[in-house]
Structures are given as C-alpha cells and as structure tokens.
Design brief:
The chain folds into two domains: 68 residues, no CATH class; 237 residues, no CATH class. Helix 1 packs parallel to helix 3, helix 4 packs across helix 12 and helix 11 packs antiparallel against helix 12. It is built from twelve helices and no strands. The longest helix is centred in the last third of the chain and has 34 residues. It is an all-alpha fold.
Length: 322
Amino acid sequence: MLEKLRKDQWRRLEVLCAKRKLSGPQCDELTHLYRQVAADLSLLQAEYGDNDTSAYLSNLLQMARSKMSGAPKLNFFELVSRFFLKDFPIAVWRERGWIIAATGLFLLVALVSGFHVYLNPDALLLTSSKDSLDRYANESFINYYSEHAASLFSTQVWTNNAWLAALMVALGLTGFVPVYILISNAAAVGRAGAVVSLYNSPEVFFSYILPHGILELSALFIAGGVGFSLFVKVLMPGRKTRLQALGDGGKQLLMVAFGLVFVLLNAGILEGYLTPSALPVWLKISIGTFCLLAWIVYFWFFGSRQAQLLAEDEHGYYQPTA
C-alpha cells in the first residue's frame, strides 16, 4: 500500500539524484524527499522487515546522501593521480624510520655473511666442490642475466620480486616473516658475493649486482620496513585501539604493496636490459643509481609534503580507551 502511495516521490528522488547539477529549489526538494523516504523506510522495516523495497530505498537514500554532501566522483585519471601523488608516497614516507632500519639490518647481515665466507674459504668446500664453485663464479652467475630473452627475464624477475614484496607486506603482522625474508636474502647475497670474489673477482660481482640491485633491494627494504611496522603498531597502538591500528596500517600496507609493483617493474627492466648489456660498468651503475635517486626524491617530495598537509587534520582525532 505504501509503495503505491509513495512510488512517484521515490522516482522523483531518484531523478534528482541522477542530475548532474541542481538548482536551489531542487536542492530543497531533494532534502524534503530525503526525509520523507527515510521515514518511509523506517515504516517499511518496522512492519515488514528487510525486503526488496527496503533495499531499494536504502540504496536511494545513500545516493541522496552523497548528492547532498557533495562528495566528488573521481574518474580513473583522478584516482591514479591521487594514488601516485598522495597515497603511495605518504605511506612510504611515514615509515621511513622502519625502512632505514630494514636497510641497516640487510646490509649488516650481508656484510657479516660475506666476510665470514670470504675469510673461511675452506668451509665452502664442506658443502660444495671447488669445480662447482668455480663454475658458479665464472659461468652461472654471469650467464644468469643473459641466458633468457630480456623481455621474458624482466617479466620473470618482476613477478618473483613483486610476490616476495607482497609476502613481506601481507604477513607483516606476524613480525617474523619480514625479518626472516630480509635476513635470508641478505645471507644469500653475502655468500654469493664472497664466492664470486674468491673464484673470480669482486669487480665482477658488483658490476652485475649494482646496476639493478640497488633499486631492487631498496624495494624489498621498503616492503620489509612497512610490513614490520604493522606488527609494532598493533603491538603498541598508542592512543588508538588495536583494531583501529590494524585498520589504518592495513590500508597503508595495501598502498605500499600496489605501489611497489611499479618500483619493481623499473628494477626488472634494469635487470633484464641494462645489467647484461655491453655498456661500460660505470655507466650501468650510474643509470641504476639515477633510478634509485629519482624514486627517493619522489618519496621525499610528495611524501613529506602530504605529511605536512595532513598533520593538523590527524592531530587529536583518536578514540580514548581504558
């Protein structure tokens, strides 16, 4: 019965919500109809509970609220711009302390592992033969970057590293996974560097690692630092509840995980095309360093700028808990 009486008003509200711009009288009409439809919805739910009509009115009221609040509808270009100019850089910038800590942990473990193997070469022979170590340093390590087509190799490296970064971010709440991945990879890099240095030369190792590795490893440092930061935020939420800390940290992790796909795409292109190229070593390392510095400037400029803009808005808006 109510549907027959109010159907025209519901349709009118739907028409007003679909309009791109509303005049003054139309805005007043929209407000009046919104109140009436809200009352109709309460009546329907009290008498019949949830049904198709009440679901329709709920959606209609949601559309009307959006229209009255003036919430902007972002198109695809605006969403992409917002992500790259605001969401991604500020998510990384806020966790720069943890990222620096992850970098320090990786470098420390890699140096300790590398020097330990380099200073104890006889220990290597307990796990591998001299021929296999020589073959790795002079053939496998070098041919790894050129034995497949550059496009295929870049794609494979990109997907593998993106998966590893996503794993560190997604399982950051454990606190253990990001640290384990960083330490295990650091130990592997240190050992590889020692083997190549012993059975070939340090110059060969760094000439193949640095052009792409400084950017590739930096992306993993970001993933590890941001992932571990979620564990700390939930463990010590401060003025937030743990649920709030988990929600805010989870949104930030999603931003970082998606953004790192593009950083690692850059690193994958360098590894597939630049590292095995015939360019002079100094030029290859310079290009890799330039790419890393470009990303650092990007995070610093946009991240710090957005952090300053949001500092006042976020200050003091925490739910007090016992």
